[in-house]
Amino acid sequence: MEFNVFAKACPSRPTLEHVTGRWGGLTLGVLVDGPLRFNELRRRVDGVSEKMLSQTLQALERDGLVHREAQNTNPPRVDYSLTPLGRETADRLLALIHLLEARMPEVLEAQKAYDAR
Amino acid sequence: MEFNVFAKACPSRPTLEHVTGRWGGLTLGVLVDGPLRFNELRRRVDGVSEKMLSQTLQALERDGLVHREAQNTNPPRVDYSLTPLGRETADRLLALIHLLEARMPEVLEAQKAYDAR
DNA sequence: CAGCATCCTTATCGATACTG
DNA sequence: CAGTATCGATAAGGATGCTG
């Protein structure tokens, strides 16, 4: 079977959107450093709301990229971690993120030039 | 200077969003094969509307990832191509896309398992 | 702590019509 | 051909209150 994200109806496209979406990428990104709990994640992914983080984690879990482990204690404790596939995905994502971060001076330069026209 | 996409106000975050956004990534992805004209792009990025493609291209051009070359002929002809930075970015993006496409069976499997609970 | 439910505001998007 | 302008539907997102 062939998958192609460039095709409108390909099932790979929703998954790509989860991974590259506003919060999906950042969530995967912070999880490469190891498992994190819900509120820990919230703090690291600066700006994400409870609701969005929750939704994002569910989508990533459903895609098999994130593993959710709930301990039935009081207070409750839930650990989120990357699956093997999640880690591979996150690695590629971080390669992109690091490139962009490193080249931001160039980007800002281009923006200034564009706006000056 | 330090850039960090995980920080809410970092200027790198909008750029990451342009690159990983719904249409930005696909647009960069098809441009790796060489320069394309507007309507050619529209056809290849299946599902994108005129408006979204236009906006996407402007954002990518402003970030210095895409080069726009307009010829003042009649009918008009405009070629879009990747800048060197755009190409490096697209390469990383494609690495991610190809990984996901290759592993979609695994993803679909995980989704089925998730939904069955 | 780790969420879900609800409401409400805002941005996104697509469709349509139009221009140089 | 390569767009821009405008509008209405829809979805994303934030704030708040509540639960086990």
Automatic annotation (TrEMBL), chains A, B:
Superkingdom classification of source: Bacteria
Residues of the HTH hxlR-type domain: 10-108
Protein name (Swiss-Prot/TrEMBL): HxlR family transcriptional regulator
Signal peptide: none
Alphabetical UniProt keywords: DNA-binding, Transcription, Transcription regulation
InterPro entries: HTH_HxlR, WH-like_DNA-bd_sf, WH_DNA-bd_sf
Organism: Lentzea pudingi
DNA-binding is among the record's keywords: yes
